[in-house]
Amino acid sequence: MPSPAPLTDRIAQTLQLRPAQVEAAVRLFDEGNTIPFITRYRKEATGNLDEEKLRLISEELTSGRQLEERASAITRLLQQQQQLTPELEASIRSATSLKQLEDLYLPFRPKRKTRATIARQRGLEPLATRILHDDRTLGDLQQAATSFISTEQGLNNIEEVLCGAQDIIVEWISENSAVREACRQVLRQTGRLQSTGIEKATPQMQAEYRDYLDFSDMIMKIPPHRLLALNRGEREEVLRIKVSWDKHRAQFVTGKILNVDARCYNQFMNEAIAEALERHLLPSLDRELRKDVTLKAEKHAIDVFARNLRNLLLQPPLAPQRVLAIDPGLRTGCKLAVLNETGDVLALDVVYITGNADRQLEARNKIVQLVREHGIKTIAIGNGTACRETEELVAQAIRDELPDVHYIIVNEAGASIYSASTIAREEFPELDATARGTISIARRLLDPLSELVKIEPQHLGVGMYQHDIPPKQLKSALDGVVESCVNYVGVDLNTASASLLRYVSGLNQLLAKRIVDRRKARGPFRNRAELLEVQGIGPTIFTQAAGFLKVAGSEPLDGTWIHPESYPATKTLLEKLQVPLVELTGENSTSQWRSQLLQQAEQIKQQPAELERLASDVHVGMETLRDILDSLLRPGRDPRLDLPKPVFRQDILRFEDLAEGVELEGTILNVVDFGAFVDIGLKDSALIHVSKMSNQFIRNPHEIVSVGDRVTVWVADIDKERRRVGLSLIRPQPSL
């Protein structure tokens, strides 16, 4: 048997990439480089692999190395047991999954006391072996069994002897790797999951799971969100779940593998197969398959959460301006906070919007006063309790006295958790939790990414069944999303919080805190090179982090995406193009020089030979040269600014104003398997069901919308009793 292909070749084949690309990525991973760094600054090495491909390589590499480690461990154990044959060793080396490895090792795994081990202890293994190998010299089984009767061994009659021999054969069949794989496929193709309600569950719990009290479907066809709900119902002892399969088909394929029809003792073997299937294989494979589909459902839920989180974090920041934030409240009043363009607090106050007319007028006057006093153009209202009443008051004030002001409803998911956190207490030690929460509402409008990184992602309200997912798995995946977003946008080294800095490539929580402490002790960083003065940051970490940390200081290139390792090449390039660096990137940069560079860059890019020659002259790869040119043309550009801005309002939308067919503007808040929730200005978000997204069949709502998208929708249906609104992305046909 030929040797299995190297791991990098197998990964390349799985992901349909060139082996050289995978080898380069693996080498860079092993050298300690991060995915954001490799994506942006090692394009030549990997053949311009994007972040998604690199993450897939990393996942395949981890699982492949786990497979190799397990194969080595099993080989070592079998050698110790003196059970390793050349054929078995070759099968272990060629295994492509942990399941295959465990199937091969199963017959040799140390066992607890079973019916088969008891039968062996009673001396029945020779009889079982001869039956299994269809030894026809054995003759009639009844007669052959008589010689094994022994009262000392607890074998008092022929029936007990044959039952013991069958127990051994049943175990052999159950541990046969070919049989297990064939039955695994039968279960995947025919397995059906059935759930029924448990009577002792409370009526309230039964009502919560009413869709699953009498449920049945093919296990491989159950949507991920349904499967997670079924698992939760089983854990909470509301549902009883059973898996069934086509046992006749399983019996048939097992008989084929063991060639039962051609055997002398085929009836005995068929009985053993039936028992092996019922007592061993179905329970074992049932657990395995349910674990597999659950892991797949959990991964799907994590992927949905991650995609929504990425879109939420990359919402564009508000153009620099002062903001009035209102955290609505009834009994305790509405908390007010005025923030300047950089998120510093200018004023705090409280108003009460309930009570008599005089009190409401006082609240309105206070809001108008703060708006005029601080030059506010945007009011951010949290979407919590009393949001509706606050919105009415603000809309009325805008209509009557503040025509140039707009307001926006801000999702405050996680604000209360942030307000009581250590991070919030360190930022605002003199303020109470309610004031911190109000400030957070404004800051997540001014710069969503900088504020939302302070909150554990699972509390941001864009997930699906996140409470059904293992917390460690969820946290790892979501931290990867946050890291990706932070490095995609870049960070101002002199203003970023420790919460933001910790996600920068190469940094961690401790180094982020040391950077902030260094700023407090010695003032702003004057250039990227001063990072090396921070304890714990050496050349390796500096290389990983520097390109993502921008500084407006003594080195003009420190404010761009150009990595310090490419500064000499950049300066050589500009000399060749006769463009002054300071004129291009400094405070007095002019459009004249940028226009000249743009014209030359376009000419260079259209001539591959010229691009290659220039790259050779400045000693960089062609991809790096392209990135340098792009960075010089748009130094310090925030990629989020290219995205559409959120929807601002001046007047309130009332539930009573809605009617079927009404056209509205909204913002996507969350995307799940069955549709998308939309903020259209009501207290509660409305739903676009997946069936209302297109005239064509839509398998995945993410194909159509993403969190943060501005959409035009039409009211499809209204449930007045439950005050729910169904929306559609399909323009209604005019009535004839």
Descriptive report:
InterPro entries: HHH_9, NA-bd_OB-fold, Ribos_protein_bS1-like, RNaseH-like_sf, RuvA_2-like, S1_domain, S1_Tex, Tex-like_central_region. One of its GO terms (biological process) is nucleobase-containing compound metabolic process. There is one protein chain. With 736 residues, the chain is α/β, with parallel strands linked by helices. The chain has five domains: 7-108, Arc Repressor Mutant, subunit A, CATH 1.10.10.650; 115-301, Tex N-terminal region-like (Orthogonal Bundle), CATH 1.10.3500.10; 323-446, Nucleotidyltransferase, domain 5, CATH 3.30.420.140; 517-633, DNA polymerase, domain 1 (Orthogonal Bundle); 655-728, Nucleic acid-binding proteins (OB fold (Dihydrolipoamide Acetyltransferase, E2P), Beta Barrel). Helix content is 50%, strand content 11%. It is built from 31 helices and 15 strands. It has a five-stranded mixed beta sheet with strand order 6-5-4-7-8, sandwiched between helices. Helix 1 (7-15) crosses helix 2 (19-30), helix 8 packs across helix 11 and helix 16 packs parallel to helix 23. The chain is globular, with a radius of gyration of 34 Å. The termini are far apart.
